[in-house]
Write a structure and sequence with these properties.
The complex is a heterodimer of chains A (about 260) and B (about 210). Chain A is of the alpha/beta class. Chain A is about 45% helix and about 15% strand. Chain A has a domain at about 230-265. Chain B has a five-stranded parallel sheet with strand order 2-1-3-4-5, with helices on both faces. The chains are: A alpha/beta (about 260), B alpha/beta (about 210).
């Protein structure tokens, strides 16, 4: 399971001002907390700062990696901003994300072609948001085909089938889950990745829904998540789900987590 | 009884709303009262319940469906006199942006408030907004953006409306859109959420 820590996102009310004030200590603290809680990648997003996104991403990467010995997930649709961040990044970064929307696809593809970068491939095209599992798989197929043709290895691709709120259409949850299973079976070796908060939009008790949905997706093969790693209930749920889904040899990770008191709330 | 229609909408009972509206019309009830004091007033209460965190999105949706079913029964009768139209609104998600969930909720609640809503869908460019607004003689153009990269599309359209001296009011909304941003780009109104958009639209048309 690959965990991307989502907290360093400029659109969060606590983070935007911190980035603007270039408060390195505050960013380092969040990054370190996420890393210690089990994040494999630290997401950095400066999307609200139109015109300054590249400079801020560069600063965020430097700041995060001065505190944490691990890679970042560079969260931007803008190739120029991503390039700035990559120039100072140590190790192998993840890019979030390419999609099948023509402008975004053409802009991002040259950036990852032939590299060893990890790339999130979002199932969205100019035709709109896919509603069904089949529509998602169709977009995933084209993205995987296009990326691998440009020498991006399958195992570096993280398909995001696009989570939509179950409050506005009761089928959105199951279509997403079916898509996970179809993608993981049809394209052996590829990964899947998603954020969760969309699933619970418009409903109360969102954290609970998000956690249960994550465990359901894991049972269908999901192996990457963009989440708040400081959410202990979520992290415990993920560990238990992987064990129950048969992805934890001899239940070792579960037992280790148990002994580290990860299941005491 | 109009109160029963009102209650049935809030209780999200589509079939009951339909049959109660039919009964009320057959009994010679005042159609504009059925609309305003029954259906629309009920949706206002639904909006209030939503804003207070008592109702959630699926309940708002279901109530709106019930209201719309009642409205469909009522429409042929309304056409004769008072059309019931509170104003015409052209709505869409701006160019380059495919997010439609919030926009759909806003469109639905505006319809529930008695506005004629022309939903242009997603990825709508300025020309399409303006052409539809001209054709439908719209009162308000309502724009949604969910990406910081597509938000400038709203500003461009508002600028065009101003420069060409067009009479449309403009409204904006979407997760990254703030009231401060709406003011900065010169929008006439901002919708925090679906009921908020209804309130704003009413304010703009009563001004």
């Amino acid at each position: 399971m690959v965990i991307v820590g989502e907290l360093i996102n400029a659109s969060r009310k606590v983070i935007g001002p911190v980035i603007e004030a270039q408060d390195a200590e505050a960013i380092k603290k969040v990054a370190l907390d996420e890393h210690e809680a089990g994040a494999d990648y630290i997401d950095v997003n400066a999307g609200i700062f139109v015109g300054k996104e590249g400079d801020y991403l560069e600063w965020l990467v430097k700041t995060v990696q001065s505190a944490v010995d691990g890679p970042c997930c560079i969260d931007s649709p803008d190739p120029k901003a991503i390039e700035k961040a990559l120039a100072v990044h140590k190790g192998v970064a993840m890019i979030n994300s390419i999609s099948l929307e023509n402008a975004r696809y053409e802009a991002l593809l040259p950036l990852v072609a032939g590299t060893d970068l990890k790339i999130v491939a979002l199932c969205m095209s100019d035709e709109g948001m896919p509603q069904t599992a089949e529509a998602r798989v169709k977009i995933a197929d084209k993205l995987i085909e296009g990326l691998t043709r440009k020498n991006v290895p399958l195992e570096n691709i993280y398909v995001d089938p696009l989570v939509q709120p179950v409050s506005t259409d009761g089928r959105f949850g199951s279509e997403f889950l079916d898509a996970i299973q179809l993608i993981m079976t049809r394209f052996q070796g590829v990964h899947t990745m998603c954020g969760l908060s969309n699933i619970s939009f418009g409903l109360p008790g969102r954290k609970y829904l998000n956690t249960v949905f994550a465990t359901m997706a894991i049972s269908r093969g999901l192996d990457g998540l963009i989440i708040d790693p400081l959410d202990r209930n979520m992290m415990a749920g993920l560990i238990a789900a992987e064990t129950l889904a048969g992805r934890d040899d001899y239940c070792m990770r579960y037992l280790k987590a148990y002994r580290a008191n990860k299941f005491v709330f | 009884m109009i109160k029963d229609i009102y209650d049935a909408v809030i209780e999200m009972e589509q079939e009951r709303v339909e049959s109660l509206v039919k009964e009320e019309i057959a009994a010679g009830g005042d159609v504009s009262k059925i609309l305003n004091e029954g259906l629309i007033a009920a949706m206002d209460e639904v909006g209030r319940l939503f804003a207070e965190g008592e109702f959630f999105v699926p309940e708002m949706l279901q109530a709106a469906h019930a209201m719309k079913a009642g409205l469909d029964v009522l429409k042929p009768h309304l056409a004769k006199g008072d059309s019931g139209n509170k104003g015409t609104i052209v709505i869409g998600t701006v160019k380059g942006d495919l997010h439609d969930i919030g926009k759909n909720l806003v469109a639905m609640m505006l319809e529930g408030a008695g506005f004629q809503v022309i939903d242009l869908g997603v990825d709508v460019d300025a020309d399409k907004f303006l052409a539809a607004a001209a054709e439908k003689q719209a009162d308000i153009i309502c724009m949604s953006a969910l990406l910081t990269t597509t938000m400038p599309g709203m500003e461009a359209l508002i600028k065009t409306v101003r420069e060409q001296g067009l009479s449309y009011k403009t409204m904006v909304g979407g997760a990254p859109v703030t009231p401060a941003y709406a003011r900065k780009i010169g929008a006439d109104g901002y919708g925090e959420d679906a009921p908020g958009a209804v309130e704003t639209a009413r304010g703009l048309l009563s001004a």
